[in-house]
Input
Amino acid sequence: MQSSSEVYQNFVNGVWKTALSSNTYQTLNPSDFESVVGHFQKSDAADVNEAVSSAKTALSSWKKVPPPLRAQYIFDVYFLLKQRNAKFSDTITLESGKVTRDSSEEVKRAIDALEFASGDGRRLKGETIPSEHRKNIIYTIRKPIGVIGIITPWNFPIATCVWKIAPALVCGNTIVLKPATITPLTAIRLTELFEEVGLPKGVLNLVTGPGSIIGEAIVKHPDINGISFTGSSDIGRQVYTESSRQFKKVQCEMGGKNAVIVRPDADSALVVDSIVKGAFGSAGQRCTATSRVIMERGSREKFLDALLGRIDSLKVGDPFNPRSDLGPISHRAQFEKILNYIELGKKEGATLIKGGRADGLEHQKGYYIKPTFFDEVKPQMKIAQDEIFGPVLSCISAESLEDAVKISNDVPFGFKASIFTSDFFEIMNAIEDLDVGMIHINSPTLGGEVQAPFGGLKASGAGIREQGTAQMEFFSEEVVVQMNYSKKN
Ligand code: UN1
Output
């Protein structure tokens, strides 16, 4: 693949411009790390200050635009993105390494999020509440929070941007967006769509650069009133702590260590298909990925052979090749982290059945890792406790449903869990006892639908959920009005 010498800019106050320092950095194609995707602004706190002041100025008129008219811009972007799905999907594949099937599924998710949020312009409702006083009425209205800092991850370069930006704008906020350092191009292309539909200047600003500098500058900035963050639990903790210290409204969507519990009666084909999708889709780089499978020893024969056979049939390779099931890992640091975990798993005494670094010719210039399967994993091993964020699946044995639920719960994370069975009583008990934000019955741990709230418990999520009706709750403040029309107190 050819290197690009194109230089991309920040978007501040409706203008594409270079960082004040004039510094840039480059990103690399993860399936061919000798080729440059583009050159991006290496912004610092001064650029963040400028973007925040532009967003602050734009806020006073943007918040007066009636919500259904604000939502019209979202609707217009929805139409553009629908037409350009394939182009966006290619950009995602180029900079993140996701196979095109996964990329276009992600774009579809962004389209759904735009559709859902644009309807919210006509539904930004409050409520009326009876008063204990005669001739008094209480009602609530929804006001914007103000300037929102949006910080997004590299594994979902468009969907996470969209499902934060769209409701934030409908609620009347203005935005400073900081996309992931290694996948800024998709966010730039998305910002161009908002420019194309004529979003007023200063309402959406974008700055690119290192999280340690501009992410921190955004979180600390006194004129930023709310933060919506998606990323690791380690960074999320810092974002949450600093934001709370300043009484900013904050939501953090973070890591997972999601388990699939397979009961002896489960349908084998469904189990295998769901685990393979969950563990190896997007090369396991999703907070909703399946990283543990928990089953009873007596069930192993029924499921394991079929599962290992399916894993063998997965093709690792060029993410633009429609036959590839797994593309490369998105960047070097993540690639090395995953390989280190594979080494650690062996040292901890787990049995590596298959996987590790891919070694074919076509893999030489990319960060490719084969679907990796560890057997005989003990629940307290690091590979069963830490979020690896790669195509690594651990198989853990349980004695009973109760034991399986306990193992599923006994990790720092609480994003998702799946259970496969047709037994009504087991299903109901699992739903009651699983400590996660999202539970799947007979379906993979992956994903979510934009009209449902999305997020986890414990180290997986903090603050009000994203998506669903929760998104309007997060991106607006509910203000109470009490009116007395009795002419006395
Ligand atoms: C999904 O897995 O369907 O970081 C979406 C993540 C999430 C987005 C996940 N914020 O993986």
The chain has a mean pLDDT of 97. Residues 153, 155-156, 160, 230, 253, 286-288, 446-448 surround 2-aminohexanedioic acid (CB under 6 Å). The domain at 10-254+460-480 is CATH 3.40.605.10 (Aldehyde Dehydrogenase; Chain A, domain 1).
